[in-house]
Amino acid sequence: MSTVFLESIALERTLPCLAEPGKIIVVGSPSRSLAEVLPYLATLPNVIAYNPHTASLTLRRRPGLITLQPDRVSITQVADVDEGIELLGALSQAINATWEKREELVAVTASRRAPRPLDVWTLLPRTNCRECGEATCMAFAFALLEGRLRPQACPPLHAQPGMDSQLHALEAMVT
């Protein structure tokens, strides 16, 4: 028997998106509190931050982010209201699909934070060679976290001996 957890997420308002001018942030109100489903949603691979104490979950979306709280949903870098309504509907379906599979999942109870630029930078060769197209390795770290570049864009990371573990750690961190 299939149980629908969430009927819908209603569009509450839109805000200008500061991360990408010309785009909007869509803010929605779920038809019921998401608190019960957040620990299961935290098992998804695109989670970049989860705080069970404040009941807040952030997922990477290309482009942008989705942040879920018990009574609020925000989606950044949305083209227009129509796309926002479509994304809220798709998110509702994804939440329901996760809820249906909850018996197969192990709910997350620990906090998880997004990697910071310095976390990424420490794994890079730090040559500032510009072969990736960025001015510095720190700029490359930001580009990795923003999803603009992949670890494969750093030639020294592949060329220097002994960098395999850093490459694998970076891939896990930014995918």
If you had to describe this structure to a student in words, what would you say it looks like?
The model has no long low-confidence stretch (mean pLDDT 90). With 175 residues, the chain is α+β, with helices and mostly antiparallel strands. The protein contains six helices and six strands, in the order ββαββββααααα. The two termini are 34 Å apart. A six-stranded antiparallel beta sheet has the order 1-2-6-5-4-3, with helices on one face. The chain folds into two domains: 9-104, TATA-Binding Protein (2-Layer Sandwich); 117-174, Electron transport complex subunit B, putative Fe-S cluster (3-methyladenine DNA Glycosylase II, Chain A, domain 3, Orthogonal Bundle). 23% of the residues are buried. It has helices at 38-41, 81-100, 117-121, 137-146, 155-159, 164-174, and strands spanning 9-16, 24-30, 47-51, 56-60, 65-69, 72-78.
Percentage of β-strand residues: 15-25%
Largest sheet: 6 strands, antiparallel
Spans of at least 5 consecutive residues whose pLDDT stays below 50 are none
Mean pLDDT comes to 90
**CATH homologous superfamily of the largest domain, by name?**
TATA-Binding Protein
First-to-last CA distance: 34 Å
Task: List the secondary-structure elements in sequence, H or E.
Answer: EEHEEEEHHHHH
Structural class: alpha+beta
Rg over CA atoms, rounded to whole Å, is 18 Å
Total beta strands: 6
Approximate shape: globular
How would you briefly describe this protein structure?
The protein has 175 residues and is of the alpha+beta class. The chain has 6 helices and 6 strands, in the order E-E-H-E-E-E-E-H-H-H-H-H. Strands 1-2-6-5-4-3 form a 6-stranded antiparallel sheet, covered by helices on one side.
